[in-house]
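Quick one, tokens below:
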């Protein structure tokens, strides 16, 4: 596998004296300033690009409860005699499939599931199949469960098979574990109705909530996350985890919003929701994109805890998506305390679910789901990317009610969808007047925008709310996808986030996940297919910041700070009081190498310096699932000249220097 190697000059000590350098970066290494918040660099999850079902959520069966509309058999192929019924055991998911005799010994009844762009299985891995089932006439029948490859040239399509005896007249959960003898990324799950002798079934079996999970999920949870994708999040060391969106929070209609109360409790009885992104982009259209809520708020809080991240839930403010409803009064709840009561209750009840004692209604449910201890939630976002008086009036009512009930919770408002301009300024004024704790800014912008924003946060008002850069990414003109050249501008811009840690308390990159066969939005941090993962260059930029965020920001002087609209060498620095390290981050956005002297004022002789470098000179190159390690960080060791680190920084390169 090809790995993009760092040019030698980035890792080796340059011999030029300080006076001959293109740039001198002076760090006041013994004068720590503002603390770097633990939440500084984190992740933003939204169920777009099949990020949840078909992605992080490890369920392999599509439409497991036969609730997709308008076709309850979407994702399934039915054969023989299959009838969809709607009086099932779960009131929020009433549909189930009735499998009955096909009418002849050589005819078969059954179902076959296509999964999400196929079902990915690994050789010698175990998979847990489960189903809620009954035999309504009391006559025991057998479900034959098979892993199949429809397109094989082998004699048999099935490559694993087990029988499951269904013998109860009452609904009951049945489980078996199957091992795959092969690795395959587009298998199918096939179910046959059989009698107890293995022939075509002559009785009836009702099946509901047909499920298939890898046994080896993240931390072994039965209703768990896909292990490799969750591991990629853990490796990043995110300080904050924003969930569930994004525009998912708003919904196309209020009825279609992400309703957290539908996402908790027994997974079999979490109602289906039409994904807000199913029909948004007709040029990237997926008519089978629904939300099972299997990855719900309990799973979010649990995953945040296991990642070591602060959970940041975002809830609806009584408004459907403004983009799609164009300030339509009828699309939004009335801007009164009575009209917004449901949304106020949602916020307050969520705090109880996360933090309440087990003798409260929602704290008791959390305990029943397996987590008696509180999750210690500290933040809540109210509304997403909304603007104007429609938002300002509603967020004030909801936020005031939340503050009254829970003054310990920090409130995050939004400045709207723009990164500057009249609506952006109005949003900030309103959030300042309402005393929001943080303001969520979003900017998906081209290279030219980032070149003009090197000093963005250096110039911000220090007396207002703190900044949450909640969604951002760089792209080239006309090239809205991940590639190395965009990532170097993100790395350079982030030096400004770090230099201004006194007011920038959180930052989370663009959407977290994208399935290579089912994406609707890019750029994204991590791409994947059914078996493989590709961490983008933007992911590595985010990880290098999060893994090396230190504890306090250090003052930095740049001898040649770039003009607006120009390329440059940009730097920030922190100290880590736990390790005693001084950590300096430097990005060269030029197309040519630059010589740099990094001077640590207040230090004398530095020990060896660790350099972690990411070569982003590859233009449109990017890591892919076929070549996931094309561009990765490379670590080396340098020697300092006293308290000065002299280096030649290659073109389009981001380096983290760690010195003691």
């Amino acid at each position: 596998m090809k790995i993009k190697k760092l040019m030698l000059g980035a890792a080796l000590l340059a011999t030029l004296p300080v006076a001959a350098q293109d740039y001198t970066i002076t760090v006041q290494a013994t004068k720590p300033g503002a603390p770097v918040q633990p939440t500084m660099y984190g992740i933003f999850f939204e169920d777009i690009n099949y990020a949840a079902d078909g992605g992080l959520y490890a369920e392999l069966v599509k439409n497991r409860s036969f609730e997709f509309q308008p076709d309850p058999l979407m994702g399934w192929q039915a054969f023989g005699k299959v009838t969809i019924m709607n009086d099932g055991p779960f009131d929020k998911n009433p549909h189930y499939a009735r499998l009955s005799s096909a009418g002849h010994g050589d005819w078969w009844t059954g179902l076959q599931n296509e999964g999400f762009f196929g079902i990915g299985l690994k050789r010698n891995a175990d998979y847990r199949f489960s189903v809620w089932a009954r035999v309504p006439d009391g006559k025991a029948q057998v479900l034959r469960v098979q892993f199949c490859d429809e397109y094989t040239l082998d004699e048999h399509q099935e490559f694993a098979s087990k029988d499951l005896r269904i013998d109860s007249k009452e609904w009951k959960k049945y489980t078996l574990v199957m091992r795959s003898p092969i690795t395959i990324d587009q298998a199918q799950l096939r179910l046959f109705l059989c009698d107890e002798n293995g022939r075509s079934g002559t009785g009836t079996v009702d099946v509901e909530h047909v499920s298939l999970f890898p046994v080896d999920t993240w931390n072994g949870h039965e209703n768990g996350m896909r292990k490799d994708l969750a591991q990629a999040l853990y490796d990043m060391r995110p300080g904050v985890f924003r969930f569930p969106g994004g525009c998912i929070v708003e919904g196309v209609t209020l009825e279609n919003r992400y309703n957290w109360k539908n996402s908790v409790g027994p997974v079999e009885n979490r109602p289906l929701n039409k994904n807000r992104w199913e029909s948004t982009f007709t040029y990237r259209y997926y008519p089978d994109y629904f939300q099972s809520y299997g990855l719900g708020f309990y799973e979010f809080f649990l995953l945040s805890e296991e990642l070591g991240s602060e959970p940041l839930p975002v809830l609806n403010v009584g408004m459907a998506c403004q983009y799609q409803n164009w300030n339509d009064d009828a699309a939004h709840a009335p801007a009164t305390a009575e009209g917004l009561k449901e949304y106020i209750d949602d916020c307050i009840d969520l705090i109880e679910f996360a933090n309440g004692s087990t003798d409260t209604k929602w704290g008791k449910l959390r305990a029943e789901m397996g987590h008696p201890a509180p999750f210690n939630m500290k933040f809540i976002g109210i509304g997403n990317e909304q603007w104007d008086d429609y938002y300002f009036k509603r967020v004030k009512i909801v936020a005031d009610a939340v503050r009254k009930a829970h003054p310990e919770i920090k409130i995050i408002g939004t400045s709207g969808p723009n990164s500057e301009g009249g609506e952006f300024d109005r949003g900030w004024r309103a959030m300042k007047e309402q005393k929001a704790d943080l303001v969520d800014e979003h900017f998906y912008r081209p290279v030219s925008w980032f070149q003009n924003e090197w000093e963005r946060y250096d110039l911000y008002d220090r007396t207002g709310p703190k900044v949450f850069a909640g969604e951002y990414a760089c792209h080239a003109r006309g090239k809205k996808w991940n590639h190395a050249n965009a990532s170097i501008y993100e790395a350079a811009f982030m030096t400004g986030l770090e230099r201004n840690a006194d007011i920038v308390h959180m930052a989370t990159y663009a959407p977290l996940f994208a399935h290579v066969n089912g994406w609707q939005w890019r750029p994204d941090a991590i791409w994947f297919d059914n078996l493989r993962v590709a961490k983008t260059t933007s992911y590595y930029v985010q990880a290098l910041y999060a893994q090396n965020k230190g504890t306090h920001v250090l003052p930095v002087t740049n001898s040649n700070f770039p003009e607006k609209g120009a390329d440059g060498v940009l730097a920030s620095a922190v100290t880590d009081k736990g390790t005693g390290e001084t950590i300096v981050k430097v990005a060269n956005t030029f197309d040519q190498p630059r010589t740099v002297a990094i001077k640590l004022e207040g230090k004398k002789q530095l020990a060896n310096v660790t350099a972690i470098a990411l070569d982003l000179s590859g233009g449109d190159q990017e890591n892919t699932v076929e070549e996931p390690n094309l561009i990765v960080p490379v670590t080396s060791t340098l020697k300092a000249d006293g308290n000065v680190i002299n280096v030649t920084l290659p073109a389009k390169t981001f380096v983290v220097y760690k010195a003691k």
